[in-house]
Design goal:
- The chain is α/β, with parallel strands linked by helices.
- Helices cover about 30% and strands about 20% of the residues.
- A hairpin with a 3-residue loop joins β21 (about 620-625) and β22 (about 625-635).
- The two termini are about 30 Å apart.
């Protein structure tokens, strides 16, 4: 890839703002910890009420405010170091795990009382991004929201480098955001993923989980020749386990695949420092260390310093990857090796090299790792220098091969038979996942085996219906009685994860959802991944589950339940079926920041014309008030 220079950043965490938000620490000092006993989580009745909070007070649209602070800080720094940046072509690629979840909980309560919700944008996954982006007062292209659970901001930063490579923009602001909520804390506690002691103890014997955190972090990326840049993103990889929805692959196969891809792009540099995902759960830490051994070799995996920043600032979910990367960038720029929080013996099955105090050995290159629900994995390589022998990205053509449209949800029995899954597994999945499974099953019947491909899922309102069900259980029985089997399906990444598992889709795998145009956004992102050589084949799923909550909150949106599955390939003649493609993907626009007018078909239905014979020559969708998506198709 062509390396991307980090020219500015904005950050807020429980430690503070800007450099304080993601500090590598002070020489000779132990790691500071911001995680505390949390009053809101304790009042909700959670048994493990620990979190790291940003000092904001009881404000509305908290997630949007966190993101706005990071964006405003980044813009101010850009004004200083790159004064003409507002006249350049600017993109925005963000990630989140829970979006406007606190506002959604409030809305569900209002609906339960039979009242009208006054502000529906705030409750969506894309609401905080939409609100915060308006403060930039710029047209943004691309504008992408990654819903890849806890790997979201790492994926977002990697995608930003792809858009720079294709010369769509001159500057991309990329990162992520999330806030602590009872909804999310109850879910993780129900899964037994949260700690009962402080601080968390990643990679140590007796570790019992993580504590939640919150914040926002964005990096402004430009081409490597940018004047004044000290650090560069030189490698990106993304892959999927294709296994369990919430548990990691025990051997770290998917994460190792992502790390290897990133390292190869960067020219296989010597890794001094690893920014670990490090959730301090028994299985994750072992799997992560095994992935390091696979990617770096056993000797280098044991020598590189590992930095588990979540144990200090909490698991900030959609913001985690960006905050953790910034802490290691701080270490690179200041010549420090950061200390690790936690005490106790190192687990012999995950023998990461942790420092008790911050050291002075100056690192040169960092490997950032991230994993998530749905088996998503991402890796980034960041260093002080750009290697001249780094692998150059070859821009591949992208072809449309086939598309199927599913307008009705099949029965549980039918889906289980189609996909060859256990009946109880399909039964506990939500409507969104079932629709996705059924559509991809139809696509596989038409296109042949899909194993090894990647998948990007786009859904206008994501898991809104499932979130309402989970929240109703919490309100009825209390946070300590949250439903552990339902919680994973509140993640928009669940569709990608279950499809990856069912069909062996081990390439790039995650969801997007920047607005009512999300299905077209997914098509565009999948095409860019193929174009950049990150996959040879990509499955695109546009899917919507419209129920009583969606109809009550968005009666004018014109959404309907259903799904479309599409197969894209880098080859005109498919390597599996030998069939020729139907069209070539051309120009892509994902613009935010200019008013849009007129009614357009949103949700999965924007992709329905792809199933026509011959396919249409273009797809367009507006997501009011200011998002426009457009993809050109060149019939063959």
């Amino acid at each position: 890839m062509s390396a991307a220079a980090i020219v500015a950043f904005g950050a807020v965490s429980a430690f503070g703002e800007q450099r304080a938000a993601a500090s590598a620490g002070e020489l000779g000092a132990p790691a500071r910890v911001a995680i505390r006993h949390d009053d809101e989580l304790a009042r909700a009745g959670l048994a493990r009420p620990f979190a790291a909070r940003v000092s904001l007070g009881p404000v509305a649209n908290r997630a949007a405010l966190l993101l706005e602070r990071a964006l405003v800080s980044c813009a101010s720094e850009l004004d200083r170091v790159r004064p003409a940046w507002r006249s350049e072509r600017v993109g925005l690629v963000l990630g989140t795990s829970s979006g406007g979840m606190r506002d959604a909980q409030t809305a569900f309560d209002i609906l339960a009382r039979g009242e009208r919700v006054p502000d529906t944008e705030a409750i969506t996954y894309f609401g905080p991004m939409a609100r915060a982006a308006r403060h930039l007062r710029l047209p943004l292209d691309p504008s992408v929201l990654v819903l890849g659970a806890c790997a979201s901001s790492s994926i977002a930063i990697g995608l930003a480098t792809l858009w720079l490579d294709r010369s769509t923009c001159d500057l991309v602001i990329a990162g992520g955001f999330d806030e602590v909520t009872v909804f999310v804390a109850a879910g993780f506690e129900a899964l037994r993923a949260t700690t009962g002691t402080l601080p968390p103890r990643p990679f140590r014997v007796g570790r019992d989980g993580m504590a939640l955190g919150e914040g926002a972090a964005v990096l402004a990326l430009a081409r490597a020749e940018s004047v004044g840049a000290q650090c560069f993103v030189s490698g990106f990889g993304v892959a999927c386990d294709g296994g369990h929805l919430t548990a990691p692959d025990r051997d770290g196969t998917g994460l190792a695949q992502a790390a290897t891809k990133a390292l190869n792009e960067a020219g296989r540099p010597h890794i001094d420092l690893v920014s670990a995902h490090a959730t301090a759960t028994p299985y994750n830490d072992v799997a992560e260390f095994r992935s390091l051994v696979r990617a770096l070799g056993r000797e280098r995996a044991g020598e590189a310093i590992v930095h588990p920043f979540k144990a200090q600032v909490g698991h900030a979910m959609g913001a985690a990857g960006a905050l953790e990367l910034l802490a290691c960038i701080d270490a690179l720029e200041r010549g420090l090796m950061p200390a690790a929080a936690g005490e106790g013996a190192i687990d012999p099955d995950a023998p990461a090299r942790l420092l008790a105090t911050t050291g002075s050995a100056p690192p040169k290159t960092v490997l950032k790792l991230a994993s998530a629900f749905g088996g998503a994995n991402a890796a980034l390589v960041v260093g002080l220098h750009v290697r001249s022998d780094a692998a150059a990205r070859v821009r591949c053509p992208v072809f449309l091969h086939s598309a199927v449209h599913l307008s009705q949800l099949p029965s549980v029995d039918d889906i289980a038979a189609r996909v060859h899954l256990a009946l109880d597994r399909v039964a506990r999945a939500d409507g969104l996942v079932r629709l996705g499974l059924a559509a991809v099953s139809d696509l596989q019947r038409r296109s042949g085996p899909l194993a090894g491909a990647g998948v990007v899922v786009g859904s206008a309102l994501a898991t809104l219906e499932t979130n309402a069900l989970f929240d109703a259980r919490v309100r009825e029985r209390g946070a300590s009685s949250a439903a552990p089997r339902l919680f994973p399906y509140t993640s928009p990444n669940a569709v990608a994860g279950e499809c990856s598992s069912a069909f062996g889709l081990t390439g790039p795998s995650f969801a997007v959802g920047g607005g009512m145009h999300a299905a077209l956004e997914a098509l565009a992102v999948a095409a860019v991944l193929i174009e950049a050589g990150h996959a040879e084949r990509m499955v695109v799923v546009g899917v919507d589950d419209v129920g009583p909550v969606t109809r009550a909150l968005f009666p004018q949106a014109g959404l309907a339940s259903g799904a479309v599955a599409v197969l894209l390939s880098a080859r005109e003649e498919d390597t599996v079926t030998g069939r020729r493609a139907r069209a070539r993907v051309g120009d892509i626009t994902l613009r935010r920041g200019r008013p849009v007018t007129g009614d357009t078909v949103g949700g999965h239905r924007v992709l329905v014309p792809l199933a026509a014979v011959p396919p249409v020559s273009e797809l367009a969708c507006s997501s009011p008030p200011d998002v426009f998506a457009h993809v050109v198709l060149e019939p063959l």
